[in-house]
Design brief:
This protein is α/β, with parallel strands linked by helices. The protein has one domain: Metal-dependent hydrolases (TIM Barrel), CATH 3.20.20. Helix content is 40%, strand content 15%. Helix 4 links the parallel strand 4 and strand 5. The protein is globular, with a radius of gyration of 18 Å. The structure holds zinc ion.
């Protein structure tokens, strides 16, 4: 039987409930902060407060998309989940390489070594000391997905090695692979590569497609393989309005891809209410679902879609 692996252990799809599939609850201060100061939230109390409000609004589960060695705060995620009762799926994997300091171990490891780190994190427990140095120390709490990132430079040799390692770990464990898609990139070559490597389309979750990929026929192409599209440009008005977001969702539903869509906010410091940000994790439930309803997609239907799709996308053997 397939289960979802959270930081506090395995749960069923039904237990997952309402789940925002790509958030950032904690990020320690590192290279990503230098690249973009909003990529830094390291106060467990504040993040716990945010997740408490999410729970009160009706949220059950969250995916934290920060991978190993890139500011992920695994012990903090465990503490937040214990404190709030919200299920948290943590990530192993790799991020955009611009988020790592120059001499980071991510640049030097072989496909096999990276596969082994991903496998250990998924099956045995997460590393907690890997931001500055080689991963050594682990806690028993496991990662529940492999986060990866496709940047604008495309499949360079290093990215190819990392994606192949992620594919190996995904095949071996059955775990889902989440793929960050950068603005203006075409995810279809990567999709083809992962399929060729034997990763099932249903294991793949392409993120940020709603802001990164204007061409909706590409969304349809990706969804038609069975892969998931994760939309998180909700309440991100520098990219587009919620009305435009709803148009994209409606379009995909009209093409029959309602069961391929996942939703989230991809919040960081600038938008987390407990850090003084503009929106709060509750925005999707409190503001966006009512807007969808007003646009003719009934709230219950949207909520069902969110529960059902995330329960399938994050379950593995
Ligand atoms: Zn993100």
């Amino acid at each position: 039987m397939k289960n979802i692996v959270t930081v506090l252990g395995k749960i069923s799809g039904e237990q997952l409930g309402f789940c925002q599939c790509h958030e950032h609850l904690l990020i320690s201060k590192g290279k990503s902060y230098q690249v973009n100061p909003v990529l830094f939230m390291d106060e467990v109390d504040k993040s716990t407060e945010e997740v408490t409000s999410y729970r009160a609004a009706g949220g059950c589960s969250l995916v934290d998309a920060q991978p190993v060695g890139c500011g992920r705060m695994a012990e903090g995620l465990v503490s937040i989940s214990k404190e709030t009762g919200v299920h948290i799926i943590a990530s192993t994997g790799f991020h955009k390489l611009s988020f790592y300091p120059e001499k980071h171990w991510i640049f030097g490891k072989s496909r096999e070594q990276m596969r082994e780190i991903f496998r250990q994190e998924l099956l045995e427990g997460m590393y907690v000391d890997a931001d500055q140095k080689e991963p050594e120390q682990r806690i028993p709490n496991r990662a529940g997905q492999i986060k990866t990132a496709l940047d604008t430079e495309g499949l360079t040799e290093r990215y190819r090695t990392l994606f192949l390692a992620a594919a190996d770990a995904a095949k071996e464990t059955g775990a889902p692979v989440m793929i960050h898609v950068e603005n203006g990139t075409d995810p279809r070559e990567l999709l083809g590569l992962l399929l060729k490597e034997g990763v099932r389309a249903e294991q793949m979750i392409f993120c940020h497609m709603d802001r990164a990929c204007k061409e909706l026929s590409w969304h349809e192409e990706v969804a038609s393989t069975g892969a998931y599209l994760e939309y998180d440009t909700i309440g991100r008005f520098k990219y587009h309005s919620d009305e435009r977001e709803i148009e994209i969702i409606r379009h995909m539903c009209s093409q029959g891809y309602e069961d391929r869509l996942l939703f989230s906010l991809d919040t960081t410091r600038a938008r987390l209410a407990s850090y003084g940000g503009s929106l709060g994790l509750v925005y999707l439930i409190d503001s966006f679902l009512p807007k969808m309803a007003a646009a003719g997609i009934p709230e219950e239907k949207a909520e069902q879609m969110i529960r059902r799709n995330s329960a399938k996308a994050f379950a593995w053997k």
